[in-house]
Amino acid sequence: MKKKKQSLFKTIIKQIPSFICIALGATMAAAALEVFLIPNSIIDGGLTGVSIILNKLFGGSLSLFVFFLNLPFLVIGYRQLGLKFLCKAIFGIVLFSVLLEVFHGIPEVTDDILLAFIYGGLLLGVGVGIVIKFGSCLDGTEIVAILLSKKTNLSVGQVVLFINIFIYGTAIFVFGPDRALYSLLTYFITFKIIDVVSEGMDQAKAVYIITDKGEEISEAIFKQLGRTITILEGTGMVSQTKKVILYTVITRLELPELREIVKSADISSFVTVSDVSEVIGTHIKKKPIEKR
Hints:
Number of strands: 4
Low-confidence stretches: 286-292
Strand content: 5-15%
Helix content: 55-70%
């Protein structure tokens, strides 16, 4: 029992830098929305965009709209990506919602629409990129996109794009066509900045793992992430020893969890991660994902 408590304490300590970075990213994203974009009637995509539209139509608190719209997808996120993701996502979304309320009282930086959408998009992209890089999210849209991609031939990126096209199309009737078009431009700026900050906006990541504990790692990936693994055999050039090479394809939201799985099973494993532009075929398991 004492060892378990010590292990849990060490795990919590290790995650503190991640939570600090998630807090920084959430702060930047909230500031981008409240002091640049929203005062100039420019909206974000995803559930945040839906929240802004609902807030415009019905009034009330934007932060409450953001929080309550994301709640169902936090549950889905737990089933899909595990307890660690859930903790980080709850922290990110709750803090993001609170900060939206905090920044709401701060005057806008500029009323120049061009400056607002450029700098707002840049700041938002950096903030969201940092949050994603450290294993969290500020919007439940991507969780929905992951689930839909597993049941259709669409990639996660395509699902997110289709959802946002619908949201920006709705924005035409709420904010007018010019503001909807500026919002769309902001989305593309944000998209590219996230690409840089989070080391690749491509949703699919190809992972090669060279390890001595192939069976243990592959079973953990299969049970916890629901991803199938291809097991290959190799020989070290210098040592001439037999090595197991695991190959799998995951989403970028699952990458932090996979790192933890590999690190806890075999700290000496060699792992490479690369972007995948397209995935054809099925690479997920059929049975429900095991809860942790």
